[in-house]
């Protein structure tokens, strides 16, 4: 046949090939059984098509490759692995009309991969007399996505090239995720450049993902910036990468650039940006993202992320409005709302939402119960907390885990029941971890119990000898009690280990920019104006009874120096900056890295009264909503 083709003129050669292809597709269907088989493979149902295989074998008929590959696809959608093996045995015994055997074999390899039967796929692969780029790519991709097989995926890529098969864009897109070290990734990146595939949109997207997963944000950004033209896939990929790597500011900056470039964000990127807004407490950017979420009306994951963002940015009015409008709600929606209300000082409402959730037949999860116990803890509802803790297994079939035990220690500790908290820890069915002991240590500092604080700190250091937080809390407890010698011992132990106490930081968003303030640091460009505004505020609230509470300065200093240190706490600088730029009807929103001290708490309450402003401060644990001289925490934090 080949020699015949060589002798034919080019136009007749093409016509002959077309005629030959037509005969291959039409000839097998001349038999009624083959025609029926073809129709069932195309239209289904799958069981009827599968049932014809024995009849074909008995009649000595061989199905064509198109029918068999369609049957395999039907099997993946509607069949089982056993059905797939039956098809494989039929093909092995009776074959398919040639040419086309490779296409059928490739579809079988893909079928085994999709059923999660990687060993079967590899056995079939090993026995294939011929393989093409599709065969290799299917197996390389499967290995790259399988646990513990990433190195094998890379070895298969090398074998593929030795076999004379050139990887294509899909091959590289699949295998890039298997690069477990920066060096291997750099080598693979160089390979894509060498074969001219580095500009392919899917390869670039995979490169960005791979750099991000290895924590190399600069590498991912470099690949992105090298692009001549943007693409929505790559935009979404890099935004998700920055957000997942903890660089919320970078994710939001890229999101704004993406919008400016005229590209639309997909659900994954929008969810990533919402999480970044949550971490940075950038409500205004979050509201802009909300506008994009509207076109995904029924996307529950996206709506839950939006709800979480509003709760964690302290905008309960927006959260409540969204929660009521959601077309559907799952247990995550309910749990998010319960935790959000509790963290914002509205514990009674949180428990009411929990009751409503149960009345609607939604079963709580262990995470829901953490939110419920948190609500009890931060409102001093000791009896309610005990009730929910003791009945969670009986009522909901949920065994208390460490998070629930930690909530109980927090509940008892905040209420000043330190001995009861210690007894609870000793009687736990679980081994207490450093988190539980740290919770007790925090309560000891709150209630100035140095002996129990020292015991809790020792327990933490047994588990985590290099724990800096335990030493800081213990030294602060001694300083609270003016036991300066003991405090100095703790500080010296920290200095000897090269540890430094983390300074207080607060940040505030203004016109889509985040301004950061550090305790005692007046390096902000507007520092002179901020200090002037701070002095004005102190003058106003002093007339309302404000007196600096110098006991919150944990250093043995003269009173004037203590007042000076208090004056420039980071949240005071942020509040002053906020009042300078406050807009009518909008609250001042501040985020801080440490628990708010008592003096700053009193300062914020009185400023909210003197200026007629709502001030919202989020610390690592909860929100404080200051309005008309009162705080949502009820001075219980």
TrEMBL record:
Protein family: Belongs to the PPR family. PCMP-H subfamily.
Record carries keyword Nucleotide-binding: no
Residues in PPR repeats: 132-167, 231-265, 299-329, 330-364
Gene3D superfamilies attached to this UniProt entry: Tetratricopeptide repeat domain
UniProt keyword Ribosomal protein present: no
NCBIfam families: PPR (TIGR00756)
Domain DYW: 545-637
Protein name per UniProt: DYW domain-containing protein
Key words of the record: Repeat, Transit peptide
């Amino acid at each position: 046949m080949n020699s015949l083709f060589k002798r034919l003129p080019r136009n007749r050669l093409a016509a002959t090939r077309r005629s030959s292809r037509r005969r291959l597709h039409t000839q097998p269907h001349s038999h009624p059984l083959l025609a029926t088989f073809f129709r069932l493979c195309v239209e289904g149902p799958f069981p009827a098509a599968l049932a014809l295989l024995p009849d074909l074998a008995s009649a000595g008929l061989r199905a064509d490759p198109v029918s068999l590959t369609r049957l395999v696809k039907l099997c993946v959608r509607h069949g089982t692995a056993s059905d797939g093996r039956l098809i494989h045995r039929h093909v092995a015994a009776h074959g398919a009309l040639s040419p086309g055997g490779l296409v059928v074999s490739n579809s079988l390899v893909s079928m085994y991969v999709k059923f999660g039967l990687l060993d079967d796929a590899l056995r079939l692969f090993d026995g294939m007399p011929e393989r093409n780029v599709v065969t290799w790519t299917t197996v390389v991709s499967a290995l790259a996505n399988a646990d513990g097989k990433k190195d094998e995926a890379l070895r298969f890529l090398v074998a593929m090239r030795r076999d004379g098969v050139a990887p294509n864009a899909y091959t590289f897109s699949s295998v890039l995720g298997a690069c477990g070290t920066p060096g291997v990734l750099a080598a693979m990146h160089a390979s894509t450049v060498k074969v001219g595939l580095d500009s392919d949109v899917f390869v670039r997207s995979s490169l960005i993902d791979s750099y991000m997963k290895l924590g190399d944000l600069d590498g991912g950004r470099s690949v992105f910036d090298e692009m001549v033209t943007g693409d929505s896939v790559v935009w979404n990929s890099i935004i998700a990468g920055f957000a997942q790597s903890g660089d919320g500011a970078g994710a939001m900056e890229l999101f704004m650039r993406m919008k400016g470039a005229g590209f639309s964000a997909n659900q994954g990127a929008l969810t990533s940006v919402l999480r970044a807004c949550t971490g940075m407490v950038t409500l205004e950017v979050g509201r802009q993202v909300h506008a994009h979420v509207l076109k995904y009306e029924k996307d529950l994951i996206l709506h839950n992320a939006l709800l979480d963002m509003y709760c964690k940015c302290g905008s309960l009015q927006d959260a409540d409005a969204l929660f009521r409008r959601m077309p559907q709600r799952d247990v995550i929606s309910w749990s998010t709302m319960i935790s959000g209300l509790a963290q914002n000082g509205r514990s009674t409402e949180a428990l009411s939402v929990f009751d409503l959730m149960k009345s609607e037949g939604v079963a709580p999860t262990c995470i829901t119960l953490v939110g419920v116990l948190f609500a009890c803890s931060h409102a001093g509802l000791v009896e309610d907390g005990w009730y929910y803790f003791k009945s969670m297994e009986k009522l909901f079939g949920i065994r208390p885990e460490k998070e629930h035990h930690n909530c109980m220690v927090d509940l008892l500790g905040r209420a000043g029941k330190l001995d009861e908290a210690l007894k609870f820890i000793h009687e736990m069915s679980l081994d207490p971890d450093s988190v539980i002991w740290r919770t007790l240590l925090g309560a000891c500092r709150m209630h100035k119990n140095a002996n129990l604080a020292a015991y809790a700190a020792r327990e933490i250091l047994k588990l985590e000898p290099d724990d800096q937080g335990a030493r800081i809390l213990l030294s602060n407890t001694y300083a609270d009690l003016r036991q300066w010698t003991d405090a100095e011992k703790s500080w010296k132990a920290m200095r000897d280990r090269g540890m430094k106490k983390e300074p207080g930081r607060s940040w505030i968003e203004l016109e889509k920019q985040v301004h950061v303030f550090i305790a005692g640091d007046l390096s902000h460009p507007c520092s002179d104006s901020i200090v002037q505004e701070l002095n004005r505020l102190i003058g106003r609230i002093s007339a309302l009874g404000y007196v600096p509470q110098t006991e919150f300065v944990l250093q043995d200093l003269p009173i004037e120096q203590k007042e000076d240190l208090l004056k420039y706490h980071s949240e005071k600088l942020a509040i002053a900056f906020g009042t300078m730029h406050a807009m009518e009807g909008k609250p001042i929103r501040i985020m801080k890295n440490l628990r708010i001290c008592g003096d700053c708490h009193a300062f914020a309450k009185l400023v909210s009264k003197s200026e007629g402003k709502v001030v919202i401060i989020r610390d690592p644990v909860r929100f404080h909503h200051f309005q008309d001289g009162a705080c949502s925490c009820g001075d219980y934090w």
